[in-house]
Design goal:
Helices cover 77% and strands 0% of the residues. Helix 1 packs antiparallel against helix 4.
């Protein structure tokens, strides 16, 4: 524990770590919420008041929760990685790959939301329900990698 407080963050290390975890929670909550909104949105009539309401709600989730939380997760996480010098460790490389994947998933959600806003419904409600499981699986793997550090 003392060695973690010696890096460039010094005594701020625990504060940065706490902030990182807080914004991870916000980010993942948004990644669970947005696909659920898409499930409900897909069932609305294109151009209806309900359709427009879902478009607005989804836009707010992306701009108020997802984008700021993701940016802070990346900034704080990279600060922690530099402080701990974990770049060559296998567990960290795997975690980083999963976070890159979640970032791509968020990008895909944004693209899909724009399709819904245009009146397109390319996926079934069942398929959208299934993609909602991606963040949960990724988070479970990330927690194991960070806590257990299996490699």
């Amino acid at each position: 524990m003392l060695s973690q407080l010696i890096g460039f963050l010094g005594p701020a290390y625990l504060w940065v770590k706490a902030a990182h975890l807080t914004f991870v929670i916000f980010w993942i909550a948004g990644l669970f919420l947005l696909p659920r909104f898409y499930v409900y949105h897909q069932e609305t009539a294109v151009g209806s008041p309900e359709d427009r309401a879902w478009i607005e709600r989804e836009s707010r989730v992306r701009s108020i929760i997802l984008t700021p939380a993701m940016a802070l997760v990346w900034i704080l996480g990279l600060m922690l990685a530099v402080n701990l010098d974990v770049w060559g460790q296998g567990w960290f490389s795997a975690k980083l790959a999963l976070v890159v994947g979640l970032t791509g998933y968020q990008g895909w959600l944004g693209v899909y939301g724009k399709k819904l806003a245009r009146g397109e419904r390319p996926l079934s409600g069942r398929a959208v329900r299934m993609i909602n499981e991606i963040p949960g699986i990724a988070v479970a793997l990330i927690v194991v990698l960070v806590i257990v550090r299996p490699f």
